[in-house]
Amino acid sequence: MSLECKVEVFLNNLSEKRIDSIRKSLEPDNVDFPENLSFKIEKKETSLVFIFEGKGNIRTLISTIDEVLEQTQVILKVTS
User: Taking a C-beta distance cutoff of 8 angstroms, is the pair 29, 71 a contact?
Assistant: First the structure.
């Protein structure tokens, strides 16, 4: 039996400028993801939703989420 996990992270009340900055900055990292791991970004009005899905090693999923959130925090600081 393989462990499957889906995590959604919501960033609310963002300006269009910040939404665009985050999406453009993270797009290059959304290439060549490890097998059994995926990452999508969806825009919903003034929010961004990060959708992570992983099968198997949960530590890889957690590390990926941590890395994306760290990068997002830097982007938000730079665009404030």
Answer: yes
